[in-house]
Design a protein that fits this description.
Helix content is about 35%, strand content about 20%. By secondary structure, the protein is α/β, with parallel strands linked by helices. About 35% of the residues are buried.
Length: about 150
């Protein structure tokens, strides 16, 4: 990892702090970067006009006892990676060939969106129990790297 990877991963973690997810361990942030320039950011939270989990004071997934890495569709939140890609589409920003920095390994649904958006590299810090997404990235030729702080 280089100094730019460190900077953009730090920014992804800052953006993740904006999450409206009721589970603090699931505050996820994403930053899409191209040519060392931030194109878009995203964090996990409810769609516009929908009350978020903090406002509802509960996590639907926890309430229904849904294990992490399964049934991602049963959640009020849009994932950070999805929100970053949606922002690019909304504002007409091309992310073809970009790098996505994310605090957590993308799930299979996000992986499919990342692949179809033309993002060529994904760097994440924390793992996620979804090995199928890693298989999809490999098959599609998307570079996926687990972020490691350089030790001196």
């Amino acid at each position: 990892m280089n100094k730019w990877d460190k900077r953009f991963m730090s920014l992804a973690e800052t953006v993740g702090g904006w999450s409206s997810c009721y589970q603090e361990n699931r505050h996820v942030g994403a930053v899409i970067v191209k040519d060392k320039r931030v194109m878009t950011t995203g964090y996990n939270g409810a769609p516009s006009g929908i009350r978020n989990c903090v406002e509802k004071q509960e996590c639907l997934r926890r309430k229904l006892n849904i294990p992490s890495g399964t049934q991602q569709e049963i959640c009020y939140a849009v994932h950070a990676e999805q929100n970053a890609i949606i922002q690019a589409a909304k504002y007409g920003i091309c992310v073809q060939g970009a790098t996505l920095y994310c605090t957590h390994q993308p799930c299979v649904i996000c992986a499919k969106m990342i692949i179809n958006a033309g993002i060529s590299r994904v760097i994440y810090r924390y793992g996620y129990p979804d090995s199928f997404s890693l298989r999809l990235f490999e098959e599609a030729g998307v570079i996926i790297e687990k972020y490691q702080e350089e030790t001196e």
